[in-house]
Every structure is written in C-alpha cells, then in structure tokens.
Amino acid sequence: MNKLNKEPLVSIIIPTKNSAETINICLKSIRDQTYSQIEIIVVDNYSQDGTREIADQYAKVYRKGPERSVQRNFGAEKAGGRYLLFIDSDMELTSQVVEECIKEIQKRKEIKGLVIPEISVGEGFWARCKALERSCYIGDEIMEAARFFEKEIFKEMKGYDERIAGGGEEYDLPQRIKEAGYKITRIPSHIIHHEGHLTLWDSIKKKFYYAQTIDFYRRKHPDLFAKQATIFRPAFFRHWKRLMRDPIHTLGFIFMKTCEFSAGGLGYLKNKCWRSGNRDKFRKFQKEYDKIHKRKGFREEEEYYEVLGTLLKGKKTLDIGCGYGFIEKYSPNTVGVDFSFEALLGANKRGVKRLVQASAEKLPFGDDQFDVSLSSGVLEHIINQEEAVREMVRVSRIQINIVHAKLPYGIEAIRPLLMRILGLKAQPVEKPLSLKEVKRLLRKNNSRVIVEGVWNYVDLRWIWSKIPYGIVKWPSHHFIISTKTKNLDRKFLGKEVHH
User: Fold this and answer.
1) Around 434, how many Cα atoms within 13 Å sit in the side-chain half-sphere?
2) 197-209 pLDDT tens trace
3) Residue 393: CATH number of its domain
4) Is residue 230 part of a domain?
5) Of the candidates 133, 163, 197, which is a domain's last residue?
6) Does any domain span residue 75?
7) HEC string of 208-268?
8) Among residues 334, 323, 307, which one has the least CA distance to residue 396?
9) Which of 142, 204, 350, 409 is the most exposed place for a label (fewest CB within 10 A)?
C-alpha cells in the first residue's frame, strides 16, 4: 500500500452509456489499485443494458447526459477528491497508476496534469490495426492527452469544453493548462484500452459523428489541430521500424486512417453547412410561426387540451410548443416553452405566467427537472426531430408525444398537393411521422414506450358536416407515453398501468 503522508483523496470519474460489457473490468482495476484513498464516480447517460446496476456495486452513480464532456464536468462537481482522474468505461488501469500519479504530481507545484500512456487491445484485424497505430503515439506530446489533474486547476480552467466531443475536449483542456503557464508530465504505468471487436464501419461512424463538433477545437487551437489533422503524423515516421515489422497491419491502419479522415471531413462539412443553413432556416421559420400565431382567426381545439391538462394536473410539466397556453389553463404547475414570440404573447394575455422562449432542440432546463414533458402536435413541425426528442428525454422522467401521423397508402406523398387544392395552410415545417418512426426516435434516446395508440382519426367533417367522425380509420395523430425510468409512476394516470 501507498506510504505517502496524508494520502490525498483521488476521485476517479467515469462517464458511461450502455457500457455493461466493459465497466466491470474497469471498476475492478480501480479496486485493485495499490493506492487506497480513492472514490469512484460513475456518471451514466441513461444506460439500458444494466450498466448502472453493475456500477452500483463499486461507485457513486449519477445520471447525466447528453455527452462525455458534460458528464465529466458533472462528475467533477460531485467529486470530493483533491485530484481528479478521468477515464472511459472501456479502460483498465494497471495496478500502480494512481500511486504513481500522486507521487509525480506532488514533486513540483507547477505540475498540474499528468499523461497516462495507453495501450490498445481488442479482437479482430481492425482492432490490431488500431493497437499498432496507438502504440506509435506513446511519448508523443501532440497525440497524448492528460487525464489526471489537480481539482483546483480543473475548476480554474472551467473543466472540459462542453461544445466539443469525441477526443477534441481531451486535448483542449491540457492545452489550456499549458497556455496558463503550468506543466504537464507523465508516469510510466499505463492504461489498457479495450477496443472490443472493432469493425471498420464502427470506426468510420465514430469519426463522422465526432467531427461535427471539431470546429470549436480547431478555432481554439489552430496550430495544434494542424499537426494532429494529418494522416502522415510524425509519430509514424519515428516508429518506421516497428511498422515495417508488421506490414499487413500497417497497411490496414493506413487504410483505416484514410477512411476515418474522409468520414471526419464529411462530418465537419455537414456540420458547417447545417449550422449556417439552419441559422437562416431557424430565423425564417420563427417569423413564419409568428405570422401563424398573429393571424386573425388562428384557433386550437381547446377541448383536447382540457383532457391533457386534467391528465397532467399536479405534475411538474414542461409543455413544449405551448402555443397560446391552453394546457397551462387546466394544469397550473406547467411551464410553457415556445420559440414564437407571438404565441407566448398570446398565452400571456390569457393569463399564463410561466413561459419561456426557446427552441425544442435546445431546452434551457436541467436534467430531470420535470416529471413530464409534453409535445402535442409539435414534433412534426420541428427541423431536427431527433434532437428535440433527446432534449425531451433529458429534461423529464416521462414523455408524452401527440404526433401528426403519416397518411397511409402513399397518400402522404401528395399531401402538399391536396392541401393546396383544398385551400389548407401548411406550417413552415411539415414532417409527419409514422408510429414506428416515433418509437425509433424514443428508443434511440433511451426512452421506453409504455403506452401507444391513436389520439384521433382523420376528420372528414370539414368536407361535409354530415360525414360521421371516425368513418375513415386513418390515424390523424399518434399518442405515445414513454419513460426513461424502469417503472412508470403508477399514480400518474390515476389507475394501475401494467406492462
């Protein structure tokens, strides 16, 4: 055991998401450290595979999302240690890592961060290619990032930049520490990074996704980024003898890097185009929605909202796309959010007080701040539906979606033409969803469907008032209740819910 005086506490922070396959090895390696004063903090992004249950045996477990930088910063806020060590759930510490970190960081006051070398292991050809590539980075200041920090410097630097994901944030923080005049050194012990059964497609998808936030990192550290963003890195030339001894896997990782860089470039361009285009779209749609809510004669079917308001009464509810605030009239403990100023103005005139102007894709609320989030006739009018669903799940325990349904039998394809012929006004965004598509969006964001059904059917009485309602069994709106918790609040619907 470690014999240092006072043995300062080290907080090891692990962000997780569906990490059941690797988290056990990770946590056991922490338990087997030669240094004893350790607390383990797991910040789980609403896993559905038993990760939380495994972590509960070893650690303090919190829930937080949506990305790794946010999870790490949250874990640091909860940490009681003088030092912080950030690792991923697929990493295994060799036994003396923490002890060596404490000895090294206490040598000189100017040392504020430490690099821990990483060795990759995994199954299959591509995992071995990745292991060979990463073996070249050991000792390379450009490609290695510090993981162990003094908590005070972490707070001074304001932690990880939450705008960056996928590795860029790991380089950004140490670079800021260096620029502030402090030192970052390294220890000899290493971390084992378990790649699992890595496929080429997995690697390409990851690079495409992460490259969509890399522009923030590029703008903050252009010189460092220029050295990192090349296939022909100096580290490869320094280790040319090692690469020549394994020509098959060398060619494999060169091909893999070429694919990754191509995917990263596409992801970067996609984000640049999306951000510039969507800013203009957002402003345009906001003006259009303001016109709709300002238009004389705009009305809502208030009786539907009376039903919903009664259902939600007593729950802390977020009404996304609240419009004129009809639900708030019947369920006073509701916060209404809409990005149309005219809609909020109309709601305020009706006496609704708890109103916020914001986009459904970026809700200004904390995780699990609400019991229920409601989207009634809104999701189909949102640009980025997946992001809106992710935000719903993030801010609430239970989600209720009433969504405009796609028309059957290919009729959906001619909906715009029918609306024009019949003189109906379309909204700026019209993206109806099938029930299957709504469930897929919820499932992708770790929300489990509890109740699904039809909210109402296509009403043909606007053609001729004598046509009976429901004669055509085409759903007009789907009704879905979902939850990211294990058990639905059984008192929520006023009766037992079996599932």
Assistant:
1) 8
2) 888 888 888 888 7
3) 3.40.50.150
4) no
5) 197
6) yes
7) HHHHHHHHHHHHHCHHHHHHHCCCCCHHHHHCHHHHHCCHHHHHHHHHHHHHHHHHHHHHH
8) 334
9) 409
| pTM, to two decimals | 0.65
Residue 142: which residues within 8 A CB-CB, separation 6 or more? 224, 227, 228, 233, 234, 235
User: What's the one-letter identity of residue 348?
Assistant: N
Chain centroid to Cα 128, Å, comes to: 29
HEC secondary structure over 163-184: CCCCCHHHHHHHHHHHHCCCEE
> Is 448 a domain residue?
yes
Quickly state the pLDDT bin for 86 (edges 50, 70, 90).
very high
Name the phi and psi angles at 486, rounded to 5: -70, -40
Rounded to the nearest 5 degrees, what angle is found at the Cα of 305, between the Cα atoms of 303 and 306?
Answer: 65
Token representation of residue 194:
């378990």
Q: Which domain holds residue 179?
A: 10-197
Residue 63, φ and ψ in degrees, nearest 5 = -115, 130
pLDDT digits (tens, 9 = 90+) for 336-391: 898 777 778 888 887 888 888 888 888 888 778 888 999 988 888 887 888 899 89
Cross-sheet strand order for the sheet of 355-357: 355-357, 334-338, 317-320, 370-376, 396-404, 475-483, 448-457
Of 149, 168, 197, the one marking the end of a domain is: 197
Per-residue pLDDT averaged across 162-170, rounded? 78
Tell me the two tokens of residue 201: 């497609």
Strand partners, 143: none
Cis-peptide, bond into residue 66, ω within 30° of zero: yes
CA distance linking residue 181 with residue 178, whole number of Å: 5
pLDDT value, residue 278 = 54
**Residue 130 domain flag:** yes
The band of 277, judged by pLDDT with boundaries at 50, 70 and 90, is: low
Mean local confidence (pLDDT), 25-42: 95
d(CA 192, CA 27): 13
Q: How many domains does the chain have?
A: 2
Instruction: Report the CATH number that the domain containing residue 57 is assigned in CATH.
Output: 3.90.550.10
